[in-house]
Design brief:
The protein is built from eight helices and seven strands. By secondary structure, the protein is an alpha/beta fold. 47% of the residues are buried.
């Protein structure tokens, strides 16, 4: 990729789910545009590997990866504090909450209630915990920043499944529908305090979560036929939209859910 405009020079960002997929692509995009980035994943080994990859791909950028569980409030408060500490005035400018898990891919009558609860725990409660921890720091500016037009931007990674139910994925659909309404709710609650919150809703994206489907030729062909652009997205394409929503170019967008699906739900 060619060098990008440093829209985020001097800003700090926290990216959950930053060790792979959309989260990794978002962390890299923000770092390449000048942000100091902390990427979060539950697995310490994956964090170390992702940190090396990110630093190789964005030489000279301030990038750190830490192991933390997004469903643990104390762990997320610590992650937010560590990201904010990278900035000159100990503040957090951007949160990208991309951590999520897939559903069981089973009929509604066959879903395991315990697994259903786990999907909602990670995909909704995890976003809430990360978003709340970030917003608490974003809204507590130093005296010289109080009254600033924008005090922070939060982007929650949802899915088109939060707007259109996919058969056999009731657990995942419900969790992503919750993520969309969480973004809208946070956007309304935090607008008066200078924090913008939006959701990005990808369709099929080539990530570790979707490889089991996309690596099967017949399944991939069927998926591509249902997408007007004829292909699934690359994580970089979703990261570009996330970066836009996190930037000052999106200064009048909050409480929105932006669909990025190649026309699949048009």
């Amino acid at each position: 990729m060619s060098p990008l405009t440093p829209r985020f020079q001097g800003k700090t960002a926290l990216v959950t789910g930053g060790a792979s997929g959309i989260g990794f692509a978002a962390a890299l995009r923000l770092a390449r545009e000048g942000a100091a980035v902390v990427a979060v994943s539950r697995d310490a080994e994956r964090c170390a590997h992702a940190e090396r990859q990110l630093r190789d791909a964005a030489p000279g950028a301030s990038i750190h990866a830490i192991a933390a569980d997004t469903t643990d409030p104390a762990a997320m408060a610590d992650a937010v504090a560590r990201a904010a500490a990278l900035g000159a005035d100990n503040r957090l400018d951007i949160l990208v909450a991309a951590a999520g898990i897939d559903g069981e891919a089973k009929d509604i009558l066959d879903l395991d209630p315990a697994n259903f609860g786990r999907v909602l725990d990670v995909n909704i409660r995890g976003l809430f915990i990360a978003g709340q921890a970030a917003a608490r720091v974003m809204t507590q500016d130093p005296a010289d920043r109080v009254g600033a037009h924008s005090k922070g931007a939060i982007v929650l990674v949802a899915s088109v499944n939060g707007m259109q139910a996919e058969p056999g994925f009731a657990d995942y659909n419900a969790s992503k529908g919750g993520a969309v309404l969480l973004a809208r709710s946070m956007g309304r609650d935090l607008a008066g305090r200078g924090v913008r919150v939006n959701a990005v809703c990808p369709g099929y994206v080539r990530t570790p979560m979707t490889m089991a489907y996309l690596d099967d030729p017949d399944t991939a062909e069927a998926i591509n036929k249902g997408i007007p652009l004829g292909r699934v997205a690359h994580p970089d394409e979703i990261a570009a939209v996330i970066a836009f929503l996190a930037s000052d170019e999106a200064s009048y967008i909050t409480g929105s859910a932006i669909v990025v699906d190649g026309g699949r739900t048009a």
